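Kindly draft a polypeptide, keeping tokens residue-aligned:

***
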Amino acid sequence: MNIDELRGRINEIDGELARLFEERMNTAARVAEYKLEKGIPVFNEEREKEVVARAKSLVSSEFSDYVARLYERLFELSREYQEKIIDASKKRVVEEPVSAPAPQIEKPAPVRAGGFGLVGRNLVYSFSKQIHERLASYRYDIINLEPDKVEEYIKRRNFVGLNITIPYKKTVFALCDEVSDKARQIGSVNTVIVKPNGQLYGDNTDYDGFMLMAKRIGIDFAGKKAIVFGSGGTSATVCNAIEDNGGSCFVVSRTGDDNYTNLERHNDAEVVVNTTPVGTYPDIEKQIVDLSIFPNCKAVLDVVYNPLNTRLVEQARSLGIAATGGLPMLVAQAKCASELFTGETIDFARVERVIETITGEVRNIVLIGMPGCGKTTVAYELKQLLSREVID
């Protein structure tokens, strides 16, 4: 092997080490939560000695001293991170919030760290964990539930706050003891918190997220006709937001009066919104509608956020139509949900930074060049720097 190939192999190993290190630190965070709950100190000398002895037994004698030194540093970092998790949790319990979110409601009861997450089904592509853990300091978990487990999970109240996504927004709405005016008007919730008295309060922050998404591409709904694809909870939210801001809405579904066989009756629509999963990874070649049938279209908003730009969004931009994917909506609604979870205000500058960061992390990087020009070497350097998968 030449030096470039050897370095490429080292880069592969480093990438795997980085992935395993992150997994180990995430597991250490869960250990911290357990220790906090049980009142156990972070430092455990006997446990660390056992781990080092086991690690030394797994390598040849030539490397046993090196692996011991490696684990000494790893333990230092693990203890530091566990103490950070515990301190953040204690701070949330004892500090009063600097300001109250709207609407004014009772704050969630203080509970252990890790009581936040996203409830849905088949959640293999969600960015919510990365977004929430950048917006605030709490742990945030992805919780996949089958339909027959949702009610039981919600009624146990073993959480501080949850986001709710497809297909459970209306299901959980019916389980709430109290809901916001927006949620009541829409008929679904995407955010719930447990109040100090144990009651479940529901809100719909998708409304605010959708309005921010529209604002970012300069769209004012006043006096405009919008056609909305999909008839689920997100569709109801979008229609309420558009109509509250002076627009008119027509919902297209497979079986309604307005369906995919008679779209021509709405060819004067100025705004097109997709609230269905069509175009979501891995089915990225699919597109809900051909925009050429809407000659007056001025804006396209697609709530799908993976990929960042669906084929619908790409076609809109190729036609000179203002368009956006769903990531801004996702981050903005997470901001509003996080404020309900913690009682702390998050400024919109942080929202924009998170959108920019997530975009950078998931956007593909394609290297093109002649054979032997160094594409593979550069690719593995990028893998090490960005913790990205390489397909050569």
